[in-house]
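Q: Hi! First time doing this. I have a protein sequence and I read that you can turn it into a structure. Is that right? Here it is:
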Amino acid sequence: MKFISMHNRRSFIQSAAKVIALGPLAAATPHLVSSIVTPAASAPATSGNAFAGKIKQIKAGELNVGYVDEGPRDGQTVLLLHGWPYDINSFAEVVPILNKKGYRTVVPYLRGYGTTEFLSEQTFHNGQQSVFAVDAIALLDALQIDQAIVAGFDWGARTACILAALWPKRFKALVSVSGYLVGNQIVGKQPLPPAAELQWWYQFYFATERGKVGYTKNTAAFAKLIWQQASPTWKFDDATFGITAAALNNPAHVDIVVHNYRWRMGIADGDTKYNDLEQQLAAAPAITIPTITIEGDNNGAPHPDATAYAAKFTGKYSHKVFKNTGHNPPQESPAAFAAAVIEVAGYVA
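A: Yes, that's right. Below is the predicted 3D structure, encoded as structure tokens:
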């Protein structure tokens, strides 16, 4: 049974769940400035690791971060953040477009991916939402970057939203796929309509020890299934997937993924040193910096309707729907994604 591609049901699910998911301000939606983007036709994603030989390492916070840093040193920095189960190669075609326009691009592997490793074997493999933002700030500090534009999708969009909300002076503008994704454990404990719960099947799987063992044993097969369900019309080949699958072999990957979803559901504790950040995020803070949100019209992953979160963005704001695009816009529609980054840069006064 294909549970993802039933768009009418997904619309019902989103309407039923959006107030629960977004908390304060969800009902106070301003006029939504939205546009439809039809990306230029491109060949299916194929082979070739565009970042081979370009990975750098730097100690930042708890991590030795693997990252790609391309483009002019004096250009406006764009921090590009991937999600699960993806990696930095989602931005392989975005980076050269931005570099040619004079932007510096920094693309890190998140904790638990690729060559990013913990500096100490004793460090808790924490996957709670705020820790990814703390990692990003530590990376910018290590690179001596004062301000950046931040853009991301999936976990990377959540992290980008948190950065924009809690560190607005460090970020000039935001591009977020699927909008306002700041989480809340209390909200995460609330049941959704049955069809919506079905879309989160993997979250419930990860809540069990069987799920953790299963993901450990079948990481690549699991990730490919998520790719197929989240982007049902995206025609990627095995070589393209294989590049990312290799990045999931990180020794901390399974721990971090499982903890992330268990933390969201409130069945696993985070680190108490992040309690203050989580309390701030639980209040669903508004994002004041200029923002573009993006949605793929074929996004098969759970996501809120744009009207549910527009009020969260109080600076200059617009929303774009990418045609023929699923859950991974930077890899499925790289030129359009890069254009959104360039456009939001123009929103900055």
